[in-house]
Amino acid sequence: MFDTLSDRLSAAFKNLRGKGKLTDADIEATTREIRIALLEADVALPVVREFIAKIRERASGAEVRGGLNPAQQVIKIVNEELVGILGGETRELRMAKRPPTVIMLAGLQGAGKTTLAGKLAKWLKETQHQTPILVAADLQRPNAVTQLQVVGERAGVPVFAPEPGNGVGDPVAVARKAMDEARAKQHSVVIVDTAGRLGVDEELMKQAADIRDAVNPDEILFVVDAMIGQDAVVTAQAFLDGVGFDGVVLSKLDGDARGGAALSIAQVTGRQVMFASNGEKLEDFDVFHPDRMASRILGMGDVMSLIESAERTFDAEEAAKTAAKLQKRGGKDFTLDDFLAQMQSVRKMGPLTKIFGMLPGASQFKDQLENFDEREIDRIEAVIHSMTPAERTDPNIINGSRRARIAKGSGTEVATVSGLVERFFEARKMMSAMASGKGIPGMPGMPGMPGGGARKAKQQQAKKGKKRGSGNPAKRSGAPAQPQAPQPGQLPAAFGGGQNGGDFELPDDLKKMLGGQ
């Protein structure tokens, strides 16, 4: 959703790189680009004006003028101000002192409230160790009760639905009965799914207010479709005035809309975004962290979310066993079965494009990520499953006839099988070196790496031996002295150093990367 905004902001910052000092013209040009980027992302105009004013004020101050790298300082300012308009600190759910905690969902029809109710219930059950119950108080929309029951079953959460819905029943009475049900069966959280409308109207407001008064919720969450742009902000403000709410949940954050609602709604309403739904599966639900979202918008990744996702997915005991296999015998105990298990664990974290997108600098490879075919992983699984247990344990025994058999069994080509085996050996070698603390194979000059260590350099020097001097005394006296080892802090002659090192100059690209120093 924020790809276009990220690209425009990156382009704005690119013009600042290599500058030793920012002028007023630089600041004006950069803020103009940022303003255009935000407006194109459909951010509310009052939010844009306030945001640009703060950036201009801070960028004109001594914190940038005296900085060593103005581009990084401006990015830091923009990051901090983005965190501010996204809500500042992460806000957690308020839990009742005496259970059950009541959470009421409100919003327009089509915003995704019913599906989100299941996602929230699953999240509370699995990560917060609560015992939630879903309440079907949307009795207007056709099959809304049935949909909630299906979602509840998938989430493994009970659903209280005494009325069939489809226009039959009193939602306020259902909400009251749900409280008695929750206390009787000792549910710690009650999630009330209320009806939505195609637009804000008095009937919707009155019904939502009546349910609010009946259950006295600890949290009222307003569910917003992040794809509807500025209408989301207008609707949120109307709900805030008519019913009131405590926090915002952004749904459909995985869409390709411009995302201005996410950047506007917290600032306009004064209510923080608490959760974000970024997919169709029940697992596609996250706590909204303003600092992490700002980092992703600026192309700096979201490593913390990636780590948390890995911790939820990977089994610590199995991970320890795998690490032990990689550390012993050069990683030869690490088999294709282990490789397949690791790959399947990574897939549980979500699409690989989403995982790679959380890494810093991933925006540079956006086109490659978009063109990545997730079915390639299915082909790898098919190839490994077509192998015998002996072949998965020791891939060295896979000869030509075995490769032909495996290719036929997996519906692939022999070249695909050969490529997989070769990549497995390379990956095992790399992971084994990293697990043993020897660095990454193939990187020159790093410890334990073939082709680059000091030991190999000494061996090559020993093979060459000393060069004999000329037999002619005149030539011998005029010959240049043997090059001496560079002094501490001096570059070797191969890099332009020599004895005085005065001729050396950094390449232009490296100068730019280092901020023009």
Please characterize this protein's 3D structure.
Strand 7 and strand 8 (285-287) form a beta hairpin. This protein is of the alpha/beta class and 517 residues long. 52% of the residues lie in helices and 8% in strands.
Keywords:
eight-stranded mixed beta sheet, disordered C terminus, single chain, alpha/beta, 517 residues
Q: What topology emerges from the helices and strands here?
A:
Blueprint: H1 3-14, H2 24-40, H3 45-59, H4 62-65, H5 70-85, E1 101-106, H6 113-127, E2 132-137, H7 144-155, E3 159-160, H8 171-184, E4 189-194, H9 202-215, E5 219-225, H10 230-242, E6 247-251, H11 260-269, E7 273-277, E8 285-287, H12 290-297, H13 303-313, H14 316-327, H15 336-348, H16 352-357, H17 366-370, H18 375-385, H19 389-393, H20 400-410, H21 414-435, H22 454-464, H23 473-478, H24 508-513
Parallel strand pairs: 1-4, 1-5, 2-3, 2-4, 5-6, 6-7
Antiparallel strand pairs: 7-8
* Main beta-sheet annotation: 8 strands, mixed
SS-based structural class?
alpha/beta
The side-by-side strand order for the widest beta sheet comes to 3-2-4-1-5-6-7-8
Q: Please tally the helical runs, counting DSSP H or I stretches of 4 or more residues.
A: 24
Distance between the termini: 36 Å
Q: What does the oligomeric state look like here? A: single chain
Question: Beta fraction of the residues?
Answer: 5-15%
Q: Percentage of helical residues? A: 40-55%
Rounded to an integer, what's the Rg over CA atoms?
A: 31 Å
Global outline = globular
Number of strands: 8
Unreliable residue runs: 440-467, 479-507, 509-517
Query: What do the pLDDT scores average to?
Result: 75
